[in-house]
Amino acid sequence: QVHLAESGGGLVQAGGSLSLSCSASGGTFSNYAVSWFRAAPGKEREFVAAISWSGALTSYADSVKGRFTLSRANARNTATLQMTTLKPEDAAVYYCAAGRIHAAPYLIQEVGHVDYWGRGTQVTVSS
Predict the structure, then answer these.
(1) What is the pLDDT of residues 17-39, one digit of tens each?
(2) How many CB atoms lie within 10 A of CB 42?
(3) pLDDT-derived band of residue 1, with 50, 70 and 90 as boundaries?
(4) Which end of the chain has fewer CB atoms surrounding its CB within 10 Å, N or C?
(5) Across residues 40-63, what is the average pLDDT?
(6) Rounded to whole angstroms, how far apart are CA atoms 44 and 87?
(7) Three-state DSSP state, 52
(8) How many helices and strands in the chain, by DSSP H and E?
(9) How far, in Å, CA of 36 to CA of 48, rounded?
(10) Cβ(98)–Cβ(30) under 8 Å?
(11) What is the pLDDT at residue 104?
């Protein structure tokens, strides 16, 4: 059983930056691909960014490409989502997710492929 805990959410002005961290415990972190999803009020959870178990592969939603960067440090059991040039439409609850994917595409981009979820962290962007 892997436990995921997000941190780093908060209130930021449009154009600003935030860094979200996902800390894992209870399992071998390097066995898992990690992703971030987000859910805005009244909307379904959507894919934001993904990173493979080794960190060699990443993928981003078109809406955040070029503004968000996902990285991981397996030795510290953490994954970090660096968000820049934030927009009001980025406001949502952000969830860290993990899953065992050791075959192509090595990335979690769909809710159905997630084995473990964090509880989420709120990101608010003021205009």
Answers:
(1) 999 999 999 989 999 999 999 99
(2) 5
(3) confident
(4) N
(5) 96
(6) 19
(7) coil
(8) 0, 11
(9) 5
(10) no
(11) 78
Closest to 35 (Cα-Cα) out of 95, 89, 88, 82: 95
What the block records as the tokens of 45 is 């959870």
Q: Given the structure tokens 């993928």, which residue do they identify?
A: 59
**Under DSSP, is residue 126 helix (H, G, I), strand (E, B) or coil?**
strand
**How far is Cα 99 from Cα 69, in angstroms, rounded to an integer?**
19
Mean pLDDT for the chain overall: 96
Token output for 83 = 């968000």
**What is the identity of the amino acid at 107?**
L
- Give the tokens for residue 35: 């992703």
b/e map 70-97, b = 16+ CB within 10 Å: bebebeebbbbbbbeebeeebbbbbbbb
Which residues make beta-bridge pairs with 58? Answer: 51
Nearest to 96 by CA among 14, 36, 28: 36
